[in-house]
Design goal:
single chain, Rossmann fold, Elongation Factor Tu (Ef-tu), domain 3, seven-stranded mixed beta sheet, about 45% helix, binds guanosine-5'-triphosphate, phosphoprotein, hydrolase activity, nucleotide-binding, ATP binding, BMS1_TSR1_C
């Protein structure tokens, strides 16, 4: 009792809720939110301003989504998507592929050699390829990759390889790109890790586009990456959407995943260096390939095919695989070069591969001894297992078979591999012994050489992008040329037993300081070395001087940046003036001059150039009448220009933008029709600007152009109706699958109830039309028998092809390296001819020296890469081409060179040096 009474009497201190501090703030926030709106979605449009903003934002998003529909020419089953794993040496490329293969197939991949095809889902296969660490390999890889995984050593930072590869990618059509940070376990400090991650992410975004996916692989568990992280990465790969790239949809290509030498052995015996016959195997991609198409083997040359056969798919989709027997399990992977796959018969050889889990034995380990996990191993199994390792030509196998069968000698390939390793190790040793000399000599090479390699050029045709993000990426890349990437510097250093080419960003110096605290001793030395590199390279360009300044005085960064920014901005204005107004101001004056007096303005006295002047005049005459051309700047009548500084004028067009009030638009359109009929002067009205028509005294022109417009419209309408009729016919024929889709769409549109839905409807209609045409083609082809179909259509994309090529140089066989994928591209009509080509070209900002006319360069264009001698020129204002001895600074110029022709709008990249000096 006493206790009870005691407790009753005891007064506890009352709980006082916090009045200030983080907790109180949070509570306030919560209560205020809860109090105001319990269901934020239900009150989304409580404010009209907000509603308007939301609406315009969604419209903007919708608009951004729209792009000209690309025509997908792939008719057959989708071939496996190529996932390219790229990165500087020793960053973990092989390990990532092994981990991913393990994730998908539950099999351990002994080594990564050549493309590895795996089934990643019911409807999807992917082919993993490790990108070789040399420029040639990177160029080829950029041409066939559907998704590039850029591996970056997080503990070290960006290396030049990544940026060089990105530049190549930009030119050859930008496929999807994802970044993967590895070696993050080397960070001991969590804060530093976080900061570095953030920093690298933003740097990555600057290079690609904001929001580009970057994965973090935090470390290794049992020598493999963490399962969960690999699982996430695999999920992303499995669901990723790939857009067809324009060059590839117009050209068939094969990424070779199996290669055989089928030269008659007798011929080789007589002459070891005779031309060889080879067979190349791989999935057909891009578009259909007809018989008789010429091919280009990257790095080898153009050939006509001696034979082309379609084989059974070695790794079919689960949905497509027809099970032949009960034990016929689905084959989930195919990697003949890595020694994975299944039983395969073809003309040249028979391959027997048995999955580990069927026979319960492991592969041969490194020492060449079999570690038996299975209960018992019979002779048959041993035989089959030894056969597993033979995957070279028949003659080679005949020579080696008895050794392989009975003595368990490690095969030639593994020998070669280990030899390679040995040489590498010995090279490392040499470096360790003589680090200084080696280092300095390498610096000297790379100060010039490696920058030369990255001598990427912009081209006209680089706009052949399909995905918005990719476009954004390119835009970003070009936009930020001036301000961000100019600061990017290569820094060669000896790190972790090998020379690495670190990327240093001008605006990241402070960050580097932060990072450097970890590796202080090293980097102090490196700073000095950096100066040395600059000195040794001996370049005396302005930029380099600037860089020297920064290296000398880090405190002056701001000033240095100021001067750079000023300079770039001043340059930009000049360029802009030239680009936007330069011609517009000059053209009218020249044409006026020509009209006024027949004296040539610039080429006066020079009879040679007179005809050109006349051509110019003609141009002026033709264009003068054409008021509807897009580039109105050339014919600006200054008296008609509106003064956009006037508030009233600006107010007048406010509603023409997404943020404006659109209800007026419909009224205005009605009014506009009336106005056109009306002969009253409408000068100064904004209708003029929108339609691009000018009403200054050319009423008759306007009227006639209007009539033309109307006629055009009528024709268009007629065509549209025809198409609709066709479509209806098609729908009636083919069980109305599309119409149901359409209904859904229309329902959706009705729901959204916006004007913009019409536009997206148009977009969808365009897409539908393309699809319709495709379906009609397929329907038409389905009626044909197989042989005729093959004749007309060619081999369909996704077919596993065997290509036989005769008389290739013996070096192709001799130096064949499974780690260096072979790309075979189909050549279009007209592309097999040689001739002069003209390309727009700009010296890359990393290339320190100007390029000189007649200095040989190596050009990569289309599937090809070849050496040629360019002549640089620039187009003067009067349309003449003036030869340049050297390329101009920060400007495009023209390059004329001789070589196998490529279609217009093809991306071009040129290199001065392709030496593989990057290890
Ligand atoms: N600590 C740590 N080690 C890693 C990580 N990723 C890879 N490694 C190790 O780095 C070494 C090189 O890995 P590889 O997969 O052979 O690298 P690679 O890029 O294929 O190398 P090359 O083919 O020679 O260019 C291996 O010993 C890996 O175990 C990581 O995230 N953390």
């Amino acid at each position: 009792m006493a206790i009870d009474s005691g407790t009753k009497e005891q007064s506890h201190k009352e709980h006082r809720s916090r009045q200030s501090g983080a907790k109180a703030d949070k509570k306030k926030r919560d209560t205020s939110q809860n109090g105001k709106k319990q269901n934020p979605k239900a009150f989304a449009f409580s404010s009209t301003v907000k509603a308007k903003r939301l609406q315009s934002r969604s419209v903007e998003k919708e608009q951004r989504r729209l792009h000209v529909p690309t025509i997908d020419r792939s008719y057959g089953e989708q071939p496996p998507y190529v996932v390219l794993v790229h990165g500087p040496p020793k960053v973990g490329k092989s390990l990532l592929i092994k981990s991913l293969v393990k994730h998908y197939t539950k099999h351990n991949l002994p080594e990564v050699r050549g493309p590895i095809t795996i089934v990643s889902g019911k409807q999807r296969r992917v082919q993993f390829v490790e990108c070789p660490n040399d420029i040639n390999g990177m160029i080829d890889a950029a041409k066939f990759a559907d998704l590039a995984l850029l591996l970056i050593d997080g503990s070290y930072g960006f290396e030049m390889e990544t940026f060089e590869f990105l530049n190549i990618l930009q030119v050859h059509g930008f496929p999807k790109v994802m970044g993967v940070l590895t070696h993050l376990d080397k960070f001991k400090d969590v804060k530093k890790l976080k900061k570095t991650k953030q920093h690298l992410k933003h740097r990555f975004w600057t290079e690609i586009y904001d929001g580009a996916k970057l994965f973090y692989l935090s470390g290794l568990i049992h020598g493999k990456y963490v399962k969960r992280e690999i699982h996430n990465l695999a999920r992303f790969i499995s669901v990723m959407k790939f857009h067809p790239l324009s060059w590839r949809t117009a050209h068939p290509y094969v990424l070779v995943d199996r290669f055989e030498d089928v030269t008659p052995p007798e011929k080789v015996r007589l002459n070891n260096k005779c031309d060889r016959n080879v067979t190349l195997y791989g999935y057909l991609r891009g578009c259909n390939m007809k018989k008789g198409t010429k091919i280009h083997i990257a790095g080898v040359g153009d050939y006509s095919l001696a034979g082309m056969t379609g084989l059974a798919d070695p790794c079919p989709l689960p949905s497509a695989a027809k099970k032949k027997g009960l034990r016929d399990k689905e084959k989930l992977f195919y990697a003949p070069m890595s020694g994975l796959g299944d039983l395969l018969y073809d003309k040249d050889a028979v391959y027997i591969n048995i999955n580990d889990h069927f026979v319960q034995f492991s592969n041969v380990d490194e020492k060449g001894e079999a570690t038996n996990e299975g209960k018992h191993e019979d002779v048959g199994v041993a035989l089959v297992k030894s056969l597993q390792n033979t995957k070279y030509s028949v003659d080679e196998k005949l020579e080696e078979s008895f050794i392989n069968l009975f003595s368990r000698k490690p095969n030639l390939l593994s020998n070669a591999q280990s030899d390679g390793k040995d040489t590498y190790e010995s090279r490392e040793e040499i470096r360790m012994i003589e680090p200084l000399e080696e280092y300095q000599s390498r610096e000297a090479i790379k100060g010039d050489g490696s920058a030369e390699e990255s001598n990427a050029e912009d081209s006209d045709g680089s706009e052949s992008e399909s995905s918005d993000k990719n476009e954004a990426a390119r835009k970003d890349a070009s936009d930020q040329d001036a301000n961000l990437k100019d600061h990017l510097k290569e820094h060669v250093e000896f790190h972790g037993g090998r020379s690495r080419r670190k990327v240093i960003f001008g605006n990241d110096l402070d960050h580097n300081d932060m990072e450097d605290s970890d590796f202080e001793a090293e980097d102090d030395g490196d700073d000095n070395n950096d100066d040395d590199i600059q000195a040794s390279s001996g370049s005396d360009s302005e930029e380099d001087e600037d860089v020297h300044e920064t290296d000398d005085e880090i405190g002056n960064i701001a000033k240095w940046k100021e001067s750079l920014v000023e300079r770039t901005s001043s340059r930009q204005t000049i360029n802009l003036m030239q680009l936007v107004y330069g011609k517009s101001t000059s053209m009218p004056t020249t044409s006026i001059n020509e009209h006024d007096s027949s004296v040539d303005d610039e080429s006066d006295g020079d009879d040679f150039f007179k005809p050109k002047g006349e051509v110019n005049k003609k141009h002026g005459g033709i264009e003068g009448g054409n008021w509807n051309i897009e580039d109105c700047s050339k014919f600006t009548n200054y008296s008609n220009l509106k003064d956009w500084k006037e508030e009233k004028l600006r107010e007048g067009i406010r509603d023409r933008f997404v943020t404006g009030d659109w209800s007026k638009a419909s009224q205005r359109n009605q009014a506009a029709e009336a106005k056109v009929l009306d002969d009253d002067a409408v000068y100064g009205d904004f209708e003029d600007l929108e339609t691009g028509e000018k009403h200054d005294g050319n009423h008759t022109d306007d009227a006639s152009s209007d009539v033309n417009h109307k006629e055009d419209d009528l024709a268009k309408e007629e065509r549209r109706l025809k198409k609709l009729a066709l479509r209806a016919k098609f729908n009636a024929q083919f069980d109305g699958a599309e119409s149901s889709e359409e209904e859904l769409e229309s329902k959706h549109e009705g729901k959204s109830g916006r004007d913009q839905s019409k536009e997206s409807g148009y977009f969808d209609k365009l897409k539908d039309e393309i699809e319709l045409r495709k379906q009609m083609n397929i329907a038409e082809l389905n009626d044909l028998d197989d042989a005729t179909r093959l004749e007309i259509e060619g081999f369909r994309t996704g077919t596993y092809l065997r290509l036989e090529v005769h008389d290739v140089p013996y070096e192709m066989v001799e130096y064949f390296d499974p780690c260096h994928p072979i790309l075979v591209g189909g050549i279009g009509l007209g592309e097999e001819n040689v001739g002069h080509m003209q390309a727009r070209l700009k010296r890359h900002r990393w290339h320190k020296k100007v390029l000189k006319t007649s200095d040989p360069i190596i050009v990569s264009i289309g599937w090809r890469r070849y050496q040629t001698i360019p002549v640089y020129a620039i187009e003067d204002r009067n349309g003449r081409h003036r030869m340049l001895k050297y390329t101009p600074e920060h400007m495009h110029c023209l390059a004329m060179f001789w070589g196998p022709l490529a279609p217009p709008n093809t991306g071009v990249v040129a290199f001065q040096n392709l030496l593989n000096n990057q290890i």
